[in-house]
Amino acid sequence: MTIATLPIEDAPRFQKDTRGFATRAVQAGAPHDPVTGAVIAPISLSTTYAQTSLGNPVGLYEYTRSSNPNRDHFEHAVAALENANYALAFSSGSATTATILQSLPTGSHVISISDVYGGTHRYFTKVAAAHGIRVTFTGAIEVDARAMIEENTKLIWIETPSNPTLSLVDIQAVADVAHEHGIMVVVDNTFLSPYIQNPLDHGADIVIHSVTKYINGHSDVLMGVAAYNSSELNDTLTFLQNAIGAVPSPFDCWLAHRGLKTLHLRVKAANENAMAIAQFLEVSPHVLAVNYPGLSSHPQRKVAIKQHRKAMGGGMISFRIRGGLKAAERFCKETKIFTLAESLGGVESLCEVPASMTHAGIPVAAREKSGVFDDLIRLSVGIEDADDLVDDISGAITRVVDSLV
Ligand SMILES: C=C(NCc1c(COP(=O)(O)O)cnc(C)c1O)C(=O)O
After folding, report:
1. Distance, CA 358 to ligand 1 centroid (Å)?
2. Residues enclosing ligand 1, CB less than 6 A?
3. What percent of the chain lies above the pLDDT cut of 70?
4. Nearest residue to 352 (alpha-carbon basis) of 322, 323, 386, 316
5. What interface predicted TM-score (ipTM) does this complex get?
6. Helix (H) or strand (E) segment spanning residue 106
7. Does the predicted TM-score (pTM) go above 0.90?
8. Which of 106, 118, 155, 159 is an S-S bond match for 359, by CB 3.0 to 4.6 Å?
């Protein structure tokens, strides 16, 4: 798979890469430097590139906000992993969401699942609304979508699994309804990464990621990315990427590309660890409910089997601890390997209480309707030793129970 060196009228930016996932992760978007032969691309920090005459750059680049070699390489790699013809990187996952919403005409209507990341809910209800984009929410999008569609509905927004209750959506079922009305489907695939799920293969029009999470995988880069197959959409989003300017730095692109090369190994390890923890939580008398798509007890397990690689559940879990917010807060103080912190998808294990942290901005009634209760704890399971992680969870729960006596 090569980056098209010169724009050819009808050729996609990236040809589809049919090699195995691991080969694409390691090799895609990683050309050897044509001058030095460097196997790992140099970091091109220059913000501007010389021109031999007016409008005639020496090479392919003019100004880094418009395009940059390291960003090209990273976008190429993400397109290869999401089976996409196009990909664009942004300065954060939230910037990706914002740029997509800003591509819609004023007066547009968007249908979204209710259980979305708190920052996405914030953008939808506080920013998009102020710009004349109306977003309505549903907790059962497969059932409700058709009836919610209006004349000006332009987009259906899905997270699957959702943050933080790990609910799943049958992407193809929603896409079939949406496409009857010329509506685009966006899937935020952050929680599973391209290794476990490829939404474009199930009818989605755009897949996005907070690269900050699994794709970079080391909690040291803030970035987002969108991938898709439509050349018309590419014209629109490429224009907005430059015009809005919410682009990542070359160094962050270089770092995220390096992280992406081990995505399959990291997600596999996190998935195995998460399964062990979910099975422990599922039988604990101190746990009211466990949300993990890898468990046969998950209410949408059939969707996981249909659209997740090997029906994997991924590295994210949420569970309700007996004892309310007090118990949830104490649990996050008692863990010794799981760090209390926002974000997810890194090599280190993290825990948080969405109701008080990542989803605190969502009105109580709305978040509890989605299952985000005060006693809900979210785990981002890292790649430490499984036994150590299970022991950490078990020990923390024991100390919570002792403290409540
Ligand atoms: C920071 C957290 N989430 C970011 C996030 C975002 C926003 O990504 P940022 O790179 O943090 O801007 C988008 N979509 C999902 C599903 C997300 O989880 C969190 O849930 O702790």
Report:
1. 9
2. 92-94, 117, 119-120, 159, 163, 188, 190, 210, 212, 222, 224, 342-344, 358
3. 98
4. 316
5. 0.99
6. none
7. yes
8. 118
